[in-house]
Each structure stands twice: as structure tokens, then as C-alpha cells.
Design goal:
The structure holds 2 protein chains of 2 kinds. By secondary structure, chain A is mostly helical. Chain A contains 8 helices and no strands.
């Protein structure tokens, strides 16, 4: 039987909606300003949602689950790490808009360590680099970017170690 | 029965991708709602008042302030620049910039519901530690080059 849309986070949305209702009673002015912000953020995010749909569709179309596991699964090795770093660096928009895509990949067997690398590498924002250089200098931008990459890798290594220990304990 | 490795048609790939966004829309709307509230209630002036209590306290404050704030990274750079000009240490400012883009308190419930509590805990604890260490080593390295 075909299932309908299984929405995620409905309870969370109800809670936020209730907060807004309460604010409308106690602080109407700011509640209205916040609602205007919601529209502004949604408007800004529309192109990113489109980009994410395209990226996810391309992944679904070109990469079969077996290939995803090969590139980002347990045996992915250095190639998977490099792809995760690059994907993190070039991905746009707030972190939460990427959750559906990441969850989709995770359900196909992408390693948690590569997801951590992706998430931390997102701290490097290529379009923002000129702005960062202008405010804080080239040296600062280079050094912080290199440390971000290093700590993204360290997080991935740590997560891999934890998961491997967990797996060997489960086997024993 | 359809095999898992059978190629997906373009139409099905787009439909599946659209559905994956649609199913998460309530969660995304909730996060956007909270982000908007934070942007209204947490002002740059309020953030600036939190600093000036010593290096360790300022790094911690920078990390927490960045984690509870949200918005375009450019905004965090501008606030950070303002904080630097007010005499806040580069350690704290760096922690602030980093946690702004890597940590998000408002999106924690959504993150846990999508990825599970274990992954969310590991991700955020490791990110928190990394942010403090990156801030520390970045400034230390720059000081090393300068001397």
C-alpha cells in the first residue's frame, strides 16, 4: 500500500508555533518582527532548497546505493574523506537545510565520520573568504581555514575509532 | 520486485528528492521560526556585553554566544570585527565566528530527531571541543608568526 507523506518534526513545529502564539499575546511587536524574519529567511532559502533538491536528485539518479557505500562507506578510505571535505567546503546555506540530503546518504550507508568531516568543513565559506580577509587579514583566514580542515579530519578519525571499538565490542 | 541497484529514472529521482525536503519541512520551519526569534531577541549589543571577563571566560562566552546566535556568517564577521574593536580578545572572537557556523543550539532538537541522539551528541561535543581548540591554535600560530 502506498504511504502518504510522513512529516518529520511536527511536534517541534507545534512547540515553536505555541511560542509564537504566546509572544503574540505578551510581545506582539517583536512577534510580528520575528514573523517577518521567517518570511525573509524562507525567501533567502528558496534557491538553496532548489539546489538541495537538484543535488539530492543527482545523487539519487547517478549514484546507486552500492556506489554510495563504495565512495562513502566503510571501505571508502582517503577518497571518501576528500569528497566529504570538498562537499563541506562548497555546500551553501544553513546546516539544517542539508539534513534531508545527509539523512538520505546516511540511510544508504555513508559513514558517520564522513558526515562529521562534512559538517565541520562547512565552517569554511568560500563566498565569505574575501570578506573575512578584508576584516581579519589573509594570514588569519589561511590559518583558521587550515585548522578547520585539520580538526574536521580529527573529528572524523575520532568518530571512526569510537565506531570501530563499538563494533568490535558488539562482535565479542 | 525492483532491485535496489536498478537505475532510477530522472522523474523518480527528482520526486524522491522533493519528497525528502517536503517530509522535513515542519522541522525546517520550526528551526527557521526559532532562528528568527533569536535574531530578534539576541542583539549584537547584548552579545558585546557578555565579554571582558578574562581569556578562558571570554573563549567560553564566544563559543556559547556563537552557538545561540544564527544567521548569515557575514553577520558574525561584522559582530566579531566590532567586538575586536571593543577590545575583546581574538581568541574569543575566533571561537564566536566558528561556533556561529558550526554549532546551533536552536537546531539541536531537529538534529536529534533526524540523526538520532547518539550522533547528535558526538557531533556537537566534538564540534564544541574543536571550536575552542581551533580558536586557541589559530591565535597562537598567528602570534608565533608575528614574533
Amino acid at each position: 500500500m502506498k504511504k502518504g507523506v510522513q512529516f518529520k518534526g511536527l511536534k517541534f513545529l507545534y512547540i515553536v508555533f505555541t511560542i509564537y502564539l504566546i509572544l503574540f499575546v505578551i510581545d506582539r511587536e517583536n512577534a510580528l518582527l520575528a514573523l517577518q524574519k521567517v518570511w525573509a529567511i524562507l525567501y533567502q532559502l528558496l534557491p538553496i532548497f532548489l539546489l538541495i533538491i537538484i543535488v539530492t536528485a543527482l545523487i539519487n539518479y547517478f549514484l546507486k546505493p552500492k556506489q554510495i557505500v563504495k565512495h562513502f562507506g566503510k571501505e571508502s578510505g582517503a577518497k571518501g574523506v576528500i569528497y566529504a571535505l570538498l562537499a563541506g567546503i562548497i555546500s551553501h546555506g544553513p546546516m539544517y537545510v542539508w539534513y534531508p540530503t545527509i539523512q538520505e546518504l546516511r540511510s544508504h550507508g555513508v559513514k558517520d565520520s564522513l558526515l562529521l568531516i562534512f559538517f565541520y568543513a562547512r565552517a569554511i565559506k568560500i563566498p565569505m573568504l574575501p570578506f573575512m580577509i578584508a576584516l581579519f587579514g589573509t594570514g588569519y583566514t589561511i590559518v583558521i581555514s587550515l585548522y578547520i580542515l585539520l580538526f574536521a579530519l580529527l573529528q572524523g578519525w575520532f568518530m571512526d575509532t569510537v565506531n570501530q571499538n563499538r563494533a568490535s565490542k558488539a562482535e565479542a | 520486485m525492483k532491485k535496489q541497484n536498478e537505475p532510477m529514472t530522472a522523474k523518480k529521482a527528482i520526486s524522491k528528492a522533493t519528497m525528502s525536503i517536503l517530509t522535513m519541512m515542519p522541522m525546517l520551519l520550526g528551526v527557521i521560526g526559532l532562528v528568527a526569534l533569536m535574531q530578534i531577541y539576541v542583539t549584537p549589543g547584548m552579545l558585546a556585553q557578555l565579554f571582558g571577563h578574562g581569556l578562558v571566560a571570554d573563549i567560553s562566552t564566544g563559543t556559547v554566544a556563537g552557538a545561540i546566535s544564527s544567521g548569515n556568517p557575514a553577520v558574525s564577521y561584522l559582530i566579531a570585527d566590532g567586538l575586536l574593536k571593543q577590545g575583546v580578545s581574538l581568541y574569543a572572537v575566533t571561537a564566536f565566528i566558528l561556533s556561529w557556523v558550526t554549532l546551533g543550539i536552536v537546531q539541536l532538537p531537529a538534529e536529534a530527531s533526524v540523526f538520532g541522539l547518539r550522533f547528535t551528541l558526538y557531533k556537537n561535543i566534538l564540534t564544541l571541543i574543536s571550536t575552542i581548540l581551533v580558536a586557541f591554535f589559530t591565535v597562537l600560530t598567528l602570534k608565533g608568526f608575528a614574533s
